[in-house]
Each structure stands twice: as structure tokens, then as C-alpha cells.
Design a protein that fits this description.
By secondary structure, the protein is α/β, with parallel strands linked by helices. The protein folds into two domains: 3-108 and 202-398, P-loop containing nucleotide triphosphate hydrolases (Rossmann fold, 3-Layer(aba) Sandwich), CATH 3.40.50.300; 111-195, no CATH class. The chain has helices spanning 36-49, 74-82, 111-123, 127-142, 150-162, 164-171, 176-191, 230-247, 267-270, 275-288, 307-310, 326-337, 347-353, 390-398, 415-482; strands spanning 8-10, 13-15, 26-29, 54-58, 94-98, 105-106, 211-212, 215-216, 218-222, 259-264, 293-299, 315-318, 358-362, 374-378. The chain has a twelve-stranded mixed sheet, sandwiched between helices. Strands 7-8 form a two-stranded antiparallel sheet. Helix 4 packs across helix 5 and helix 12 (326-337) packs across helix 13.
């Protein structure tokens, strides 16, 4: 393998993350300020050079510099010279994404595609409330109602509450308290800006897997604002992973991955996550490599990630860890024990001594076996280190390969419109029935009035007839008796 694909140097030899083993996943750890972001940038640009697209969450905005060539950093030039490498500075093709549309193209998901499991975690629902949310999705499916955005889900939840007695016969009891809790959670989500995420056009996964002039496109998701809502951040990235898993065909063994996915601040994915969600993540991590996708978690400590998932991460880069407390020392020991032992290296001590830009590295070899851990220097990136300017970002976005396909939202007919129409029709029908009843009442009153008039007339006629009759009889009889 040429040194152009090397990531680090240990002694006199270079370390390369083999492309055929890149979909076996990986882990980049280290305390704040030890060089994780620079390492991440180097790994990304190395695989972009191989033609492998990447999806990366940009937590601090520092990774945007990968879009333009470097060359203005004397420390980088000095390090490259020290390592005997040519300074062939270059930039890499980048597509910027942002759910708010400020720092990149709008990135959207639909409520239906996000699904009840991720939404329940996103809204912080308990088991009972989650079951009601599942019921709402089931009823929407059965009645052909598309759930695309938050107003669709809000309308559906309201509809479920209003029809709770009717639906309980087919779907089970619907808790009124849970309906209220979900509605409040939806209002909270909207106040956090989650309404910007849900809607159409939804992200087309194929747009993440592209190349330009032989280089894989780097999809940078701006997370500087998104990090204010950690659950939304974690749910979005997990949704993208799930979409990749469900969309991509089986790839088998290949010379290089179809896509690499980098999850920065990975501990946020597992914080307060229910067991069912962690099982889902474990399943995706285990099976998605057969689709040609590699997942790389970036976090401070390996113990931020569940053991079953850590066990599947074959490629390891460990920067320095701090050990100020007994708990920290235990974490350092655990990190050292997760890497393949080097008899000539005390991994635990080394982890606390590493300088900035140094790391303990163990990559998988051609047989998929972890190599012996080596203390190494990370090769500096050839692209610009640090954020680009707002003007540079706008210029790059104006020539983006996805064009303006995601810049304008679309509000298609969905659950909200259909349920609103249904309510209007029901209201119109009710008004019509009430009008008919009112007309019937008027008609009945008029009919009753006519009946009374007729009765009075008949009574009067009878009375007149009787009086006339009596008068005639009296007259006749009077005449007779007088005679």
C-alpha cells in the first residue's frame, strides 16, 4: 500500500487502515485536546482519496476545512517533513447538510420513516406512552394516513384520543393521560426545532454515496446547533444508519467499503437509551458491514459504549487518556486491555503519556486479526485544518452535487389534511342533520297547529250545529205545545 493511504507512522514503518477491512468498524478515543479531531480528518480524507464516500457529524464546525486544501500551517509542514512525506496539499469534495438549512442543505426525515421506537426515545416517553404512540402508527397504516411531519403526528394523536372508545375494541385501551403526555412532548420537540427535521423532501440515501473525480464525497452534517438537543442529534444519526441498513443491498466481501459513517460524541447515542434501542443499535452494527458500510465511533472513553458493540469494533486508535481519579484509572486500564498486547509496550502507561497527535493504534490485518498495538504519530491532514469562512461555505454549496433538491420544503397531502377534511365533513354532516331536525320540528309544529285549528273548527261546527238543532227543536216543540 502506498504511503498516500497511510494514517500514522510507528518507528520507521507506516500504518494503513486496510480498505478491505474498513467495514469491520472502528473506534477513536481520547481526552479533549489530544488530537481526535485531526485524526478523524486524516482518516476521512484518506478514504475519500480511495473513492469511499463518508458521512460525518461535525460537532464543532472544525471539519469543514476538509473541503479546501491546506498549506498554511507551519506545524503541519514540519510534521510532514519529519515523517519524510511530501506536502501534497489538497481539498476533498464535500456536501454540507444541516437540518435548519443554515450551514448546509436541509436534511429531513419523515415521521413514518423515523418510526415509533426512535420517536419514543426522542420524546422521553415511558412504556405505556410508547405503546399508545405505536398504536397511532398502526392506526395510521391501517387507514392509509401518511405521517410526514409533526402536525401529522399531532393530528393523529388527537384523533386517537377522540376515538379512544371506538378504537379500544380493535386495538386495546387508549390511555387519555398518555395522549396528553404525548401531545406535551410534541410541543416540547417543536420548541427545540425538531419540526425542522420532519417533512419532505426526505433525504435520499443515494445522495450520500457519491464521488467526484475519483474521490469519495464527504457528507458533513453540521451539528454545532444540533448538539444543544443531544437526543435529537443521536436519533438523527441512528435514523440515517437504519436507512442505510434497510436500503443498501448485500455487498459481501469487497476491496473497499461503499460508505464509512463517523459518529462523533458517540456516548450520546447510548445515554438513557432503553434496552430495546441498544439492542437495535447492536443489531445494525453487527449486520450493516455486510452492506459494505463501516461505522466509526469517536468518544473519550471506550467504556462510553456498550461492551457488545465495542467487541465489534476491530480498528482502534487510542489517544491519551487522563487518570485523575480511581474511576479514570479503571477506564484507562479497560482501554488498554481492549487492544492487542505488545510485549514491548506498557499500554496503560503509554495511554497516560501520549502527546498531542500521538496514539496507540491496532488495525485489522488481511485476515481480519487485530495487529499488535503500536505507539504512533498521526500523519497530518493535507486539507485545511480548522473551519472555513462563511463565504467559502456558500461558494461550495452553490456548486454542490445535490443542487437545490432539498432547499425548498414540500407539504404533500398527509394525515393532517385528511383528518382535517374528515372533521370538516363530519361537522358539515352534523350541521346538515341538525338542520333537517330543525326543519322537521318546524314542520311538526305547523302540522300540530293545523290539527288544532281543524279540531277547533270541528268543535265549533259541532257546537253551532248542536245549538241550531236545539233551537229548531225548541221552536218546533214550542209550537206544538202552544197549539
Amino acid at each position: 500500500m502506498s504511503t498516500e493511504y497511510a494514517i500514522a507512522k510507528a518507528g520507521e514503518h507506516y500504518l494503513t487502515l486496510l480498505p478491505s477491512m474498513a467495514n469491520r468498524h472502528g473506534l477513536i478515543t481520547g481526552a479533549t485536546g489530544t488530537g481526535k479531531t485531526i485524526t478523524l480528518q486524516k482518516v476521512i480524507e484518506t478514504f475519500s482519496s480511495m473513492g469511499v464516500p463518508c458521512v460525518v457529524s461535525d460537532i464543532k464546525g472544525d471539519l469543514s476545512g476538509i473541503a479546501i486544501k491546506g498549506g498554511n500551517n507551519p506545524k503541519v509542514a514540519e510534521r510532514l517533513n519529519q515523517m519524510g512525506l511530501e506536502a501534497a496539499y489538497t481539498g476533498y469534495p464535500v456536501t454540507f447538510w444541516d437540518i435548519w438549512g443554515d450551514q448546509g442543505h436541509r436534511l429531513r426525515a419523515t415521521i413514518s420513516d423515523m418510526g415509533p421506537l426512535l420517536l419514543s426515545r426522542l420524546m422521553g416517553l415511558n412504556e405505556t406512552q410508547s405503546s399508545v404512540l405505536n398504536l397511532a402508527f398502526k392506526v395510521a397504516d391501517d387507514e392509509g394516513l401518511a405521517l410526514l411531519d409533526l402536525k401529522d403526528l399531532r393530528a393523529m394523536i388527537q384523533n386517537i384520543g377522540e376515538r379512544s372508545k371506538e378504537l379500544s375494541l380493535s386495538y386495546g385501551n387508549v390511555s387519555t393521560a398518555s395522549i396528553g403526555a404525548i401531545q406535551r412532548a410534541l410541543l416540547s420537540l417543536e420548541s427545540q426545532g425538531a419540526d425542522q427535521l420532519f417533512g419532505e423532501p426526505m433525504l435520499n440515501i443515494a445522495d450520500l454515496i457519491q464521488s467526484v473525480d475519483g474521490k469519495g464525497v464527504v457528507n458533513l452534517l453540521d451539528a454545532t446547533k444540533l448538539m444543544n438537543t443531544p437526543k435529537l442529534y443521536a436519533s438523527l444519526l441512528l435514523w440515517i444508519l437504519s436507512e442505510l441498513f434497510e436500503t443498501l443491498p448485500e455487498a459481501g466481501d469487497s476491496k473497499k467499503p461503499k460508505l464509512l459513517f463517523f459518529f462523533d460524541e458517540a456516548h450520546l447515542l447510548f445515554n438513557d437509551a432503553p434496552d430495546v434501542l441498544i439492542e437495535k443499535i447492536e443489531q445494525v452494527v453487527r449486520l450493516i458491514r455486510s452492506k459494505g458500510v463501516g461505522i466509526y465511533f469517536i468518544t473519550q472513553h471506550p467504556n462510553d459504549i456498550p461492551e457488545k458493540i465495542v467487541a465489534q469494533l476491530g480498528n482502534r486508535i487510542a489517544h491519551a487518556l487522563r487518570a485523575f481519579t480511581p474511576k479514570d484509572q479503571q477506564a484507562v486500564r479497560a482501554a488498554a486491555e481492549t487492544m492487542r498486547d505488545n510485549e514491548e509496550l506498557d499500554e496503560k502507561t503509554a495511554l497516560m503519556e501520549l502527546g498531542v497527535g500521538e496514539a496507540l493504534i491496532s488495525f485489522l490485518d488481511e485476515k481480519g486479526t487485530p495487529s499488535i498495538t503500536e505507539r504512533s504519530l498521526i500523519i497530518p491532514p493535507l486539507s485545511h485544518i480548522g473551519p472555513i469562512t462563511a463565504k467559502e461555505r456558500q461558494e461550495l454549496m452553490s456548486t454542490s452535487i445535490v443542487g437545490d433538491a432539498y432547499d425548498q420544503s414540500i407539504d404533500n397531502l398527509s394525515a393532517y389534511e385528511h383528518l382535517t377534511k374528515r372533521l370538516e365533513e363530519q361537522a358539515a354532516y352534523k350541521a346538515e342533520q341538525e338542520s333537517i331536525k330543525a326543519e322537521e320540528k318546524v314542520s311538526k309544529r305547523e302540522s300540530n297547529r293545523e290539527s288544532v285549528t281543524e279540531a277547533l273548527a270541528k268543535s265549533a261546527a259541532r257546537a253551532i250545529g248542536s245549538q241550531l238543532g236545539r233551537a229548531i227543536i225548541r221552536g218546533v216543540l214550542g209550537s206544538i205545545f202552544k197549539k
